[in-house]
């Protein structure tokens, strides 16, 4: 089976390429090569989809095409320039396609207008909807949730792995019962390849079923062999203390204000589970993420509190 990964040099696309290679696929990764190196023992073709004809270096036909692009112009060029040479198509979309994060039902953004700025991060959700429309009904559309695990550069899950591994008093956001969802990059990649190989089509929310934040932190602590003391801080306190949600400086990752985001981490993904997605225990993901952090020397910098900020907040909480 000949598989084209449009990307293959970053977090998710690199894992997809690795797993496809290990399944015996003839894997071609096509990218500009600016995000990193593709996995060993796959073919790399340097392309630039920002230009018309940018995929001309790709030769031959492909049984599977897997695309992680977020910009409609790039997806449109790929669909156009690979017409007649592509078998099954997979687009990795996002849960950000949903217009109202306060609800857990299926209300989508309008697709991004053709004259809108697709590079603006504020247009991410509508741009992904436009990408979904471009690939069409015959494609597998993977509306991925929060992707975590080894090699994750975004630090939202890794912050908790590193912080809980240090032990002591840990500032935890919101309530233990607040819902969260995530998916290990290895599980998501395996399901994408399984589904593509059997020709699955249509949109699927691809993440775990919802579970409590208290369970999340307990299972991470289990995976890193730690027994921290969790100190829970309500969102009113966090907002008052100017703690940012989700990611970035002075943030507590995987916390989002309620009720505005009550549906964002509360999707019913039972249809995806029925279609074969398997979720490994959080403790196993945490253990492997900690091993990667230590082996790679990755420094958590894109999300979370500094030690001094956490100490200050714990003192203010009393």
Tell me about this structure.
It is a single chain. By secondary structure, this protein is an alpha/beta fold. It has two domains: 2-144, NAD(P)-binding Rossmann-like Domain (Rossmann fold); 148-182 and 208-265 and 281-317, UDP-galactose 4-epimerase, domain 1 (Alpha-Beta Complex), CATH 3.90.25. Helices cover 33% and strands 21% of the residues. The chain has ten helices and 17 strands. The protein has helices spanning 11-22, 72-81, 124-135, 156-166, 185-197, 213-223, 235-240, 270-274, 282-296, 307-317; strands spanning 2-6, 26-31, 43-46, 62-67, 86-94, 140-144, 147-148, 169-173, 179-180, 183-184, 202-206, 211-212, 229-233, 244-246, 248-249, 251-253, 303-304. The strands form six sheets. A seven-stranded parallel β-sheet has the order 3-2-1-4-5-6-11, sandwiched between helices. The protein has a two-stranded parallel sheet with strand order 7-10. Helix 2 links the parallel strand 4 (62-67) and strand 5 (86-94). Helix 1 (11-22) crosses helix 5 (185-197), helix 2 (72-81) packs parallel to helix 3 and helix 4 packs across helix 9. The longest helix is centred in the C-terminal third of the chain and has 15 residues, at 282-296. The chain is globular, with a radius of gyration of 20 Å.
Features:
318 residues, alpha/beta, Rossmann fold, UDP-galactose 4-epimerase, domain 1, 7-stranded parallel beta sheet, two-stranded parallel sheet
């Amino acid at each position: 089976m000949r598989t084209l990964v449009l990307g293959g040099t970053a977090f998710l696309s690199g894992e997809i390429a690795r797993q496809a290679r290990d399944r015996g696929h003839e894997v071609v990764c096509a990218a500009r090569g600016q995000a990193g190196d593709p996995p060993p023992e796959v073919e790399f073709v340097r392309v630039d989809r920002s230009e018309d004809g940018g995929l001309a270096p790709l030769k031959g036909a492909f049984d599977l095409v897997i695309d992680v692009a977020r910009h409609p112009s790039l997806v449109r060029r790929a669909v156009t320039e690979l017409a007649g040479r592509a078998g099954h198509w997979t687009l990795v979309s996002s849960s950000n396609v949903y217009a109202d994060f306060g609800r857990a039902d299926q209300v989508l953004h309008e697709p991004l207008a053709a004259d809108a700025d697709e590079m603006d991060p504020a247009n991410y959700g509508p741009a992904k909807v436009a990408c979904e429309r471009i690939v069409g009904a015959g494609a597998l559309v993977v509306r991925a949730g929060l992707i975590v695990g080894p090699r994750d550069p975004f630090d939202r899950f890794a912050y908790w792995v590193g912080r809980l591994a240090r032990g002591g008093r840990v500032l935890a956001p919101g309530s233990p019962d607040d819902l969260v969802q995530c998916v290990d990059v290895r599980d998501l990649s395996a399901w994408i390849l399984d589904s593509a190989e059997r020709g699955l089509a249509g949109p699927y929310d691809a993440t775990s079923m919802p579970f409590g934040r208290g369970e999340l932190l307990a299972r991470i602590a289990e995976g890193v062999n730690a027994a921290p003391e969790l100190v829970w801080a309500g969102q009113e306190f966090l907002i008052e203390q100017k703690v940012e949600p989700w990611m970035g400086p002075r943030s507590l990752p995987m916390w989002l204000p309620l009720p505005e985001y009550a549906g964002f981490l509360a999707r019913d993904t039972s249809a995806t589970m029925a279609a074969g997605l398997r979720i490994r225990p959080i403790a196993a993901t945490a253990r492997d993420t900690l091993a990667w952090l230590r082996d790679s020397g990755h420094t958590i910098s894109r999300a979370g509190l500094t030690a001094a900020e956490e100490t200050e907040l714990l003192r203010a909480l009393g």
